[in-house]
UniProtKB/TrEMBL annotation:
It holds the Pfam family RhoGAP. One of its GO terms (molecular function) is GTPase activator activity. This is Active breakpoint cluster region-related protein isoform X7. GO terms for biological process: signal transduction. The gene is abr. It comes from the Eukaryota. SUPFAM superfamilies: GTPase activation domain, GAP. It comes from Danio rerio. CDD domains: RhoGAP_Bcr (cd04387). Residues 102-301 form the Rho-GAP domain.
């Protein structure tokens, strides 16, 4: 039995995960027709799409169980749907202990580190055995595994390294994404969000370069160092694109909204019916901001801090 959460934009990755977790009994004496696998996954995709379009299923918060069978092969799975807004919505924890939902400056000060331990360990594990994984960071990890890792990092469990080495790599990648999504404010901060949106829209290359570098220098040191660490990691992942199929643009699409999407303000709470085209425009801009930095030559923290050039976005 496979449990999955389906969002508005990850149907393909869901089907890939179902296929990965499905066990077929090879000892069966049933003679199966050719192309059974392809036809079966076609049925799975059709079932997910029909359920996704069903208003009652979409509005339900419960898991929906289903079975699809063809030529002796049976797929059992349960699923529930979350809207695109909810899947990307910043949902900080209310607690102040642990690491999830706690300001990054508080965590790094407590750990006496420049980059949070959870970020360093997840990156290390992904680079050790997940960098060649097809769809790394795009394919969702099992929700229960991610929650187990979250609890372990929050409790600072002694056997966290053992857990990481035994855990499915997509769960580790999902834990890293969840950490950034649950920060009280985005890694690139609420304060600078409007400036990032203005800077990425500048048409003059030199003006854009000056603006985007100045914005990085304006970040608090823990945020900046963590961002640069993640940036170099994602570049290394993209170097394996022929194997893992994750281009810079794919990675920017996954991480852009997570690192930039603003905290939910009181004013935005009242605008629940915000037009979808405005929402989509914001997401595209968030993706473009991260893509800009991913495509940029290596950025050094020391060089950024050494450069005292100040630039106004009012051009």
């Amino acid at each position: 039995m496979t449990e999955i959460v389906v969002t508005d934009c990850n149907l393909n990755s869901v089907c890939e995960r179902i296929e990965q977790h499905c066990c077929v009994d090879d000892t069966s004496t049933i003679k199966r027709h050719t192309n059974t696998g392809a036809k079966l996954w076609g049925r799975v995709r059709s079932k997910l799409l029909r359920q996704k379009l069903d208003p009652q299923t979409v509005q339900s918060k419960n898991w929906h169980m289903d079975v699809i069978e063809m030529n002796g092969i049976k797929v059992e799975f349960s699923m529930k749907f979350t809207s695109r807004d909810l899947s990307l919505k910043r949902t900080p924890s209310k607690k102040q202990s642990g690491v999830f939902g706690v300001k990054i400056s508080v965590v790094t000060k407590r750990e006496r580190s420049k980059v949070p331990y959870i970020v360093r360990q997840c990156i290390e594990e992904v680079e050790k055995r997940g960098i060649d994984e097809v769809g790394i960071y795009r394919i969702s990890g099992v929700a229960t595994d991610i929650q187990a890792l979250k609890a372990a990092f929050d409790a600072n469990t002694k056997d966290i390294l053992m857990m990481l080495s035994d855990m499915d790599i997509n769960a580790i990648a999902g834990t890293l994404k969840l950490y950034f999504r649950e920060l009280p404010e985005p890694l690139l901060t609420d304060r600078l969000y409007p400036a990032f949106m203005e800077g990425i829209s500048l048409s003059d290359p030199a003006a854009k370069e000056n603006c985007m570098m100045h914005l990085l220098r304006s970040l608090p040191d823990p945020n900046l160092i963590t961002f640069l660490t993640l940036l170099e990691h994602l570049k290394r992942v993209a170097e394996k694109e022929p194997i893992n199929k994750m281009s810079l643009h794919n990675l920017a699409t996954v991480f852009g909204p997570t690192l930039l999407r603003p905290s939910e303000s009181e004013s935005s709470k009242a605008q629940i019916t915000l037009a979808s085209d405005i929402w989509s425009h914001d997401v595209m801009a968030q993706v473009q901001v991260l893509l800009y930095y991913l495509q940029h030559p290596p950025i050094s923290f020391a060089e950024l801090k050494k450069n005292t050039l100040y630039f106004s976005t009012d051009v």
